[in-house]
Design brief:
The longest helix is centred in the C-terminal third of the chain and has 20 residues, at 131-150. It contains eight helices and no strands. It has helices at 21-33, 37-54, 64-75, 91-95, 114-126, 131-150, 157-168, 187-194. Helix 5 (114-126) packs antiparallel against helix 6 (131-150) and helix 6 (131-150) packs across helix 7 (157-168). It is mostly helical and 201 residues long. Helices cover 50% and strands 0% of the residues.
Length: 201
Amino acid sequence: MNIEGLDYNTSRTRLVLPEYGREVQQMVEYAKTLPTKEERQRCAEEIVKIMNRMFPHNRDDVNYRQKLWDHLAIMSNFELDIDYPYNVSEARSMSKKPQPLGYPMNTIPMRHYGSLVFELFEQLKTMPAGEARDELVRQTANQMKRDLLLWSHANNVEERIAGDLARFTDGAIQIDLATFRFEKINERELLAQKMGGKRKK
């Protein structure tokens, strides 16, 4: 439906910096059309004054004035021919969208342990016997226990850990459940952490 006089945001051009609103963006577009550099300069300075009044709580920030001029340059798509009081060349990097982060797609046999635990398995395969390996085994086994409890694999947890340690380290690590001591883990607190904090009593 097209009603004369109604102007929907969906039909308007996209705002470069929405926090300043469409009116400021229109002022910037107007400044670009002014015929002389003097006129563009005066208009730009007035626009920056308006931008400054919009966010008074930011005035104590370091380099706040430069940030305003950087934003003006970004909103003009760096097409506003004026004498900027600051070097706005670095603002070009601010205006670019960051590259998406690559998501690790490596597959692991048991997802509940996570890739970090499998990295520990690889380290334990070649680690020489001694106190350092014993400590890493202890930390790995206890992390495995936390992971199993978080994923509700509560049956025969310690037996499973012993078997998985031997299996995924190619037999290099064999723990004796008769002598090996796991940390006592409070399952309620562990589950509360999983849910985003301790439950209210």
